[in-house]
Amino acid sequence: MTPIMSKSTAAELVVSARIRRGLTWAGIAEQLGTPVVWTTAALLGQHPMSAEQADRACQLLGLGEEVAESLQLQPSRGSDPATMADPTIYRFSEALSVYGPALKALIHEEFGDGIMSAINFQVDISRRPDPDGDRVVITFDGKFLDYKW
Asked: Active site annotated at which positions (predicted)?
């Protein structure tokens, strides 16, 4: 019996197939009928896909059932330190380092004692034209979870 392909190996194959086939993440998400950020994260190994989603994604990408099998596994979420050093990803860490305490204070002021869920959560990205250069707009939409005893 062969081992199940790792999610990182499956993600590498997905990225290669996407590039070679000239597909966009948005185009794949549209074909699957799923949100683009979720779809991209799932294909990069951060969410499990249903069997139907994984099979459909692999058909679009020309990948085999061993990749589809891996895409259905529960992930170990998070990133390794090398990924966190990427300039784009590091800027998210930097932004949360600077603005995290203010956002926490504002959440507590507006909602009370609690947190924003990252499980009951949606994220979206869009482009906003600006005369000084286009802006990246990222929306985190998480359910408020109050602390209860």
From this structure: 91, 94, 117
Task: Say whether pTM exceeds 0.85.
Answer: no
CB atoms within 10 A of CB 28: 21
91-124, pLDDT tens digit by residue? 999 999 999 999 999 999 999 999 999 999 999 9
91 has catalytic annotation = yes
117 carries an active-site annotation:
yes
Which residues make Cβ contacts (< 8 Å) with residue 86, sequence separation at least 6? none
Nearest to 128 by CA among 117, 119, 139: 139
Ordered structural domains, the chain, with CATH:
7-71 (1.10.260.40), 79-109 (no CATH), 113-149 (3.30.1160.10)
